[in-house]
What we know:
The protein is mainly beta. The chain has helices at 13-21, 103-111; strands spanning 44-51, 60-66, 75-76, 81-84, 93-99, 120-124, 134-137, 143-148, 154-160, 167-168.
Amino acid sequence: MKTLHLKIQKASEELMQKLEDNGCIIRLLPSKEKHRINVDKDAGKGEYVYRNRMLFGSHCLLSCAIDNSKFYSFATHPDKEDVLLLGGVDEKKLIFIISMLKREEFLTKLYTSELSEDDFIVFEAVYNDPYLSFFSIIENTPHGECAIGDKKPATFYVTESSNLPLDKIRLYDYYDVILQ
């Protein structure tokens, strides 16, 4: 019987690149050019980095770019999505808006013009921080993103079910949202 003598190596850029070049891993690096996607001004877009086969349950990883200064994709999903804030290097500020209300209560207040500032939390994304940069958005939570500034579009990753619908809410049909 042969013996394998395997040397433990320290992780390094070169080692990780070798693994990626060999098709062993997908590196999620801040603002990785391979994962950057073209996005029109005043738009947001996501493209698959990978998509699992249905055989093992539906799951995907999206690379997202945001270059809209308003929350045009304000919406909910009927299941959770995971946000990975890897990036932010020389990019516009990524701003999240998250409602404190669930979808049905939010829509009721939207349609009756009863929404208030207390119904929202808006925050500037912090990238690459293990305590602030990786989170799941719970199902039926209205949320959205926008990007402000004069740099490249803001980027981040999202993992979610591969057929997860985006149930848009037409917030701007009822309210003008001003960021301060």
